[in-house]
Amino acid sequence: MRISITRALSILQRCARDCPQQQHSSPSVGNSTLSGAVRLLSSQALATSKEPEAGNVPKKSLNLFSAINQALHIALETDPRSYIFGEDVNFGGVFRCTTNLADTFGKHRVFNTPLCEQGIVGFAIGLAAMDNRAIAEIQFADYIYPAFDQIVNEAAKFRYRSGNQFNCGGLTIRAPYGAVGHGGHYHSQSPESFFCHVPGIKVVIPRSPAQAKGLLLSSIRDPNPVVFFEPKWLYRQSVEDVPEGDYMLPLSKAEVMREGTDITLVGWGAQLSVMEQACIDASKEGISCELIDLRTLIPWDRETVEASVNKTGRLLVSHEAPVTGGFGAEISASIVERCFLRLEAPVARVCGYDTPFPLVFEPFYMPTKNKILDAIKTSVSY
């Protein structure tokens, strides 16, 4: 049965009224009234794009949130089945990633929702199941937990439980994650490992503006549900030349950012810039580091990491999330299984501590350049 988006949003609003009130420390959210009923569009071919060739495409210097905005603009422009919704997205969102999109494409395609993450994701699953591109924004990754059941029990299993007769592959859930410098335990968490445990969804985390644009467009157009975590620390701090056109970067394909021979370093998101600085400092002491950006955590590129470790004989994984049960543990176990006879030192992990994310003590919690450099030296001299 097909229903209008106006009708679907009214259901979502009722869901919000029935949900327990959440005490979010973000700006208040107003409900949007959609102008007219919008018919759910039938299936049509996606715009074809490919990874741009280096030096062959015009580029513009952008920060990360502007690159995200550009990707969302392209997604809405190239596919009329695409919709963006979440708390405060109508005026641009907390981090301004959706600025001007409602003015350009209309409030029936970019609209605010009630403050109810379970309702946002539930609505997104239904919209995607009707052959649309649902791009749902969770204001902070820390707020994603009320929607956990919808993501892991509904979205992830939709295709499997129907024997591939139905799916919600057009679903992308965007969420700012990680340290922000002053967020404390409700605005700085890194929950990626929770979702990496769930078959049926993909987990993608970019490290820079150009990566964010290409990976987000690939996620939106992928035929599987994707949880797309954006490193909020980099929204304004990370700036680079970004291809101006429509392009996609491959999911589940790691990138070797820096080649080396002595030790392999693996990370994702904002942690890559920290790790890169550690690699530079290590090179001054004669240690050659190979640095790999995983980019997609599930399904992750084991082959690239395995080939690197077989060459270097050592591995270090770093992430902001707590060390116990973090995704670094999965990487460590997999590489030990595959490369045991080539390892010349135990796999090292430089991660967050097993505590709630602190506020005043954030500098002590974070896996810093010096912590990583010390771990590199220890591994190389083992």
What does this structure look like?
With 382 residues, the protein is an alpha/beta fold. It has two domains: 59-243, Thiamin diphosphate (ThDP)-binding fold, Pyr/PP domains (Rossmann fold), CATH 3.40.50.970; 255-380, Rossmann fold (3-Layer(aba) Sandwich). 34% of the residues lie in helices and 18% in strands. The protein has 13 helices and 14 strands. It has helices at residues 5-18, 64-78, 101-105, 117-129, 148-155, 158-161, 192-196, 209-221, 271-283, 302-312, 327-339, 362-365, 369-380; strands at 59-63, 82-86, 110-112, 133-137, 171-177, 202-204, 226-231, 239-243, 255-258, 263-267, 289-293, 296-298, 315-322, 348-352. The strands form three sheets. The protein has a seven-stranded mixed β-sheet, with helices on both faces. Strands 9-11-10-13-14 form a five-stranded mixed β-sheet, with helices on both faces. Helix 4 (117-129) packs parallel to helix 5 and helix 10 packs across helix 11 (327-339). It catalyses: N(6)-[(R)-lipoyl]-L-lysyl-[protein] + 3-methyl-2-oxobutanoate + H(+) = N(6)-[(R)-S(8)-2-methylpropanoyldihydrolipoyl]-L-lysyl-[protein] + CO2. Heterotetramer of alpha and beta chains. It is found in: Mitochondrion matrix. One of its GO terms (molecular function) is branched-chain 2-oxo acid dehydrogenase activity. It comes from Marchantia polymorpha.
Question: What is the secondary structure topology, with strand pairs?
Answer:
Layout: H1 5-18, E1 59-63, H2 64-78, E2 82-86, H3 101-105, E3 110-112, H4 117-129, E4 133-137, H5 148-155, H6 158-161, E5 171-177, H7 192-196, E6 202-204, H8 209-221, E7 226-231, E8 239-243, E9 255-258, E10 263-267, H9 271-283, E11 289-293, E12 296-298, H10 302-312, E13 315-322, H11 327-339, E14 348-352, H12 362-365, H13 369-380
Parallel strand pairs: 2-3, 2-4, 4-5, 5-7, 6-7, 10-11, 10-13, 13-14
Antiparallel strand pairs: 1-8, 6-12, 9-11
Helix pairs in contact: 1-4, 2-8, 4-5, 9-13, 10-11
